[in-house]
Amino acid sequence: MPIAHVHPTESEDFENLVKREKRSLDEFEISATPEQPVTREANVTSPVSGSITIKSKKTGQSRTYRTGHMSGWVMEAYSDVKAGVL
């Protein structure tokens, strides 16, 4: 299931990790927000980044993670799913 504003491979990775825990993406409300790239030097744009909020429909708990180049949101969110936080 693609997640808007998140790289497709990250969406797939998160879905596969959730399935590993015998869970489904349908158990969560997921919203991602991109940030505008920042130009620090002439003709140089920073990598796309943003945030993703994942909320458990069952518990109402939610967590927000940074997304983008070199982010670890997939494993951070998976750790929260595995620990029962989400």
Keyword list:
two-stranded antiparallel ribbon; 27% helix; 2 helices; three-stranded antiparallel β-sheet; single chain; alpha+beta; 86 residues
Number of beta-strand segments:
5
- Determine the number of helices (DSSP H or I, runs of at least 4 residues): 2
Order of helices and strands: HEEEEEH
Strand content: 25-35%
Estimate the global geometry from the Cα principal axes.
elongated
Poorly predicted segments = none
- Specify the structural class: alpha+beta
Q: Roughly how many Å is the radius of gyration?
A: 14 Å
Give the termini separation.
18 Å
Question: Tell me about the biggest sheet?
Answer: 3 strands, antiparallel
Average pLDDT number:
88
Number of domains: 1
The amount of helix comes to: 25-40%
Strand order of the largest sheet: 1-4-5
Summary of the model, kept short:
27% of the residues lie in helices and 33% in strands. The chain is an alpha+beta fold and 86 residues long.
